[in-house]
Amino acid sequence: MNTWQAIAKISPHELVESRLQLHYAIQLLAATGAALAEALPDYSHTSLAWHSGLDVFVGAAIRATTPFQVALDPVSLTLMLLDQQSETTITLPLAGKTMVEGLHWLQQELSHLGADASKLVFLGMVQKWQF
For residues 78 and 85, is the Cβ–Cβ distance under 8 A? Predict the structure, then answer.
């Protein structure tokens, strides 16, 4: 059964910039999992899943004083923190922000939740990417 639906006829070349922005935004979720989630041998703690109820990507569940997940709305390119009930507690629209600004915001907010935010770093080279 084919569940794919064409939503528009857009040239793949027109999607390059959007794909890159999404790729870099997702690094914030992966970095959080790598730094704060229980490490798994297959590195799946750095992966993400789709939350169909919220239509967002979600990273690993993080145990902290106040447990949370980092989420990303791929349409609005908004970073979100979710509580254990998948309720949004705070958001950061990434448009016009750099990756470093996103990382600093995330570090600040995660420290308020009781996580060791000093462990949160990018997995690869720090990019000067601007969303």
Answer: no
How many whole angstroms from its chain centre is CA 110?
Answer: 13
- Distance of alpha carbon 22 from alpha carbon 28, whole angstroms: 10
Residue 48 is which amino acid? L
Q: What is the pTM of this model?
A: 0.86
Count CB-CB contacts under 10 A for residue 36: 24
Who's near 98: CB < 8 A, 6+ residues apart? Answer: 128, 129, 130, 131
Residue 75 neighbours by CB under 8 Å, 6+ apart: 55
3-state secondary structure of 99: helix
Kindly give the pairing relationship between strand 56-58 and strand 49-51.
antiparallel
The pLDDT tens digits of the residues spanning 40-83 come to 999 999 899 999 999 999 999 999 999 999 999 999 999 999 99
pLDDT tens-digit series, residues 80-109 = 999 999 999 999 999 999 999 999 999 999
